[in-house]
Design brief:
The chain is mainly beta and 407 residues long. It has a domain of 89 residues: Immunoglobulins (Immunoglobulin-like), CATH 2.60.40.10. The protein is elongated. The protein starts with 12 loop residues before the first strand and ends with a strand. The mean pLDDT is 93. It binds 2-acetamido-2-deoxy-beta-D-glucopyranose (2 copies). One 2-acetamido-2-deoxy-beta-D-glucopyranose binds next to loops.
Length: 407
């Protein structure tokens, strides 16, 4: 017996037994009725739909791809995507959403791609995506009205591989710790200013990090230490004049670094970088970072600098640590202020632990200026502490004794 003809809405074209339904540019104000249950791919792009109502797609249990981009969607009702157990891709970019329609994502147990780019979303609250832990790709680029991202915004996204937060006016890198499988992170086009250690905590799987045109003026010591799997780093088109000594040393897989269009100051502080580029980067992928200053070296490639271009001196500890007698329970500080923030600073503790800037051990941390800070000393902290400051010309150490007496 011949199968009954499958319905096709008047505004759409249907093919492959109505598994592909295309209804683009029809000035639709609503999702059309009578879409075939066979539909796997539904394209409603470039219409005038404003509201996605509860149960709109409820019968489309085979639907895999739903495209609602370039409409006027300002509201997605709770239950709008009910009955879509096979939905893989949901596109909502270029719409008028002011909030993330978190509750509507319930039961989308196979969703892998969610596109929310270019919506006037103002905040990303806690657990915004925890109903869709299956997500692999999340596009939140060009959220130009974004003012707030909660510390727990990305909680639950344990399968996410790609996240776009480019062009979102971010002044800080949000808490990305939950994204344990993230491989690619786009943060370009923001206004980050400084990149601090700990910003990438938890991102041990990250392979590519894009930070172009992000107004980065300073990268702090040890800022990238958490990125053990990083292969590609793009820092082009920023305001960087220098980078801290051996910044890339912990990144054993790093092989592509883009540094062009930054006002590099070519002096002893970038000599390590010049060596690193020559040794680590086989081809010429990082070729085009050039000196901006001093005038005599302007236009030279960073990878072509020679130690003979300038005289380098071992670092100076401007404010060395002083011996300290304190009572148990007090706070304490051992100073180790250096002439420039571009040296690397490490502290060796009495039990042999090496501490770097940004590392944190319960009560002890190394502050940005090199200070070893104790929130609350114990008698066991007693002993010798050595600060080691390194640059391309060598290292300088200073030692002090901390003596903690029982309260
Ligand atoms: C950042 O997220 C992690 C894991 O999701 C959480 O444990 C941590 O408390 C968050 N940090 C802050 C400062 O809230
Ligand atoms: C690397 O690129 C620079 C600038 O484009 C060029 O002058 C140089 O010859 C290149 N080196 C190699 C080994 O290709």
């Amino acid at each position: 017996a011949a199968a009954a003809p499958t319905p096709c809405p008047a505004a759409c074209t249907c093919s492959n037994q109505a598994s592909r339904v295309i209804c683009t540019r029809r000035e639709l104000l609503e999702v059309p009725q009578s879409i075939s249950v066979n539909t796997r791919y539904l394209n409603l792009q470039e219409n005038h739909i404003q509201v996605i109502r509860t149960d709109t797609f409820k019968h489309l249990r085979h639907l895999e791809i739903l495209q609602l981009s370039r409409n006027l969607v300002r509201k997605v009702e709770v239950g709008a995507f009910n009955g879509l157990p096979n939905l893989n891709t949901l596109e909502l970019f270029d719409n008028r959403l002011t909030t993330v329609p978190t509750q509507a994502f319930e039961y989308l147990s196979k969703l892998r791609e969610l596109w929310l780019r270019n919506n006037p979303i103002e905040s990303i609250p806690s657990y915004a995506f925890n109903r869709v832990p299956s997500l692999r790709r999340l596009d939140l680029g060009e959220l130009k009205r974004l003012e707030y991202i909660s510390e727990a915004a990305f909680e639950g996204l344990v399968n996410l591989r790609y996240l776009n937060l480019g062009m979102c006016n971010l002044k800080e890198i949000p808490n990305l710790t939950a994204l344990v499988r993230l491989e690619e992170l786009e943060l370009s086009g923001n206004r980050l200013g400084r990149v601090r250690p700990g910003s990438f905590q938890g991102l041990g799987s990250l392979r590519k990090l894009w930070l172009m045109h992000a107004r980065v003026a300073a990268v702090e010591r040890n800022a990238f230490d958490d990125l053990k799997a990083l292969e590609e780093l793009n820092l082009a088109h920023n305001d960087l004049a220098s980078l801290p000594h051996d910044l890339f040393a912990p990144l054993h897989r790093l092989e592509r670094v883009h540094l062009h269009h930054n006002p590099w100051r070519c002096d002893c502080d970038v000599l390590w970088l010049s060596w690193w580029l020559r040794e680590t980067v086989p081809s010429n992928t990082s070729c085009c970072a050039r000196c901006h200053a001093p005038p005599a070296l302007r236009g030279r490639y960073l990878g072509e600098l020679e130690p003979g271009h300038f005289t380098c001196y071992a670092p100076v500890i401007v404010e060395p640590p002083a011996d300290l007698n304190v009572t148990e329970g007090m706070a304490a500080e051992l100073k180790c202020r250096t002439g420039t923030a571009m040296t690397s600073v490490n502290w060796l503790t009495p039990n042999g632990t090496l501490m770097t800037h940004g590392s944190y051990r319960v009560r002890i941390s190394v502050l940005h200026d090199g200070t070893l800070n104790f929130t609350n000393v114990t008698v066991q902290d007693t002993g010798q502490y050595t600060c080691m400051v390194t640059n391309a010309a060598g290292n300088t150490t200073a030692t002090a004794t901390l003596n903690v007496s029982a309260a």
